[in-house]
Write a structure and sequence with these properties.
- The chain is of the alpha+beta class.
- The protein has one domain (10-92): Arc Repressor Mutant, subunit A, CATH 1.10.10.
- The protein contains 3 helices and 6 strands.
- It has helices spanning 41-52, 56-66, 71-87; strands at 9-12, 17-22, 25-30, 35-39, 54-55, 91-92.
- The strands form 2 sheets. A 3-stranded antiparallel sheet has the order 5-1-6. It has a 3-stranded antiparallel sheet with strand order 2-3-4.
- A hairpin with a 4-residue loop joins strand 3 (25-30) and strand 4 (35-39).
- The chain is globular, with a radius of gyration of 13 Å.
Length: 93
């Protein structure tokens, strides 16, 4: 538990993306690359957490708490989501 205190907190760069919730999804405009992004229900859970800032562990917990997914499966999904968002320049740490 002590290591979570120094864990990286990820959040969306508000100057890099604008977005809206539509039903159970998120529709976003990547302002850096001028591309629209669609995020499904699981991605929406992560997106909403990243809007205010979350650690990787908190994101994993959010997925396992909402969906029928193992912690290992959630960890892979979270890492892919974070890597994709970081590659697009949408995250700050």
């Amino acid at each position: 538990m002590g290591s979570e205190g120094c864990a990286t907190v990820y959040r969306l760069r508000h100057d890099a993306v604008t977005w809206r919730e539509v039903d159970d999804e998120v529709v976003a405009l990547d302002l850096v690359n001028s591309q629209y992004l669609g995020v499904n229900a699981a991605g929406r859970v992560l997106w909403m957490r990243l809007a205010s800032g979350a650690t990787e562990a908190q994101l994993i917990e959010a997925l396992t708490g909402r969906f029928d997914v193992t912690p290992e499966g959630a960890r892979v999904d979270v890492r892919l989501f974070l890597d994709n968002a970081a590659h697009r320049g949408l995250l700050e740490e």
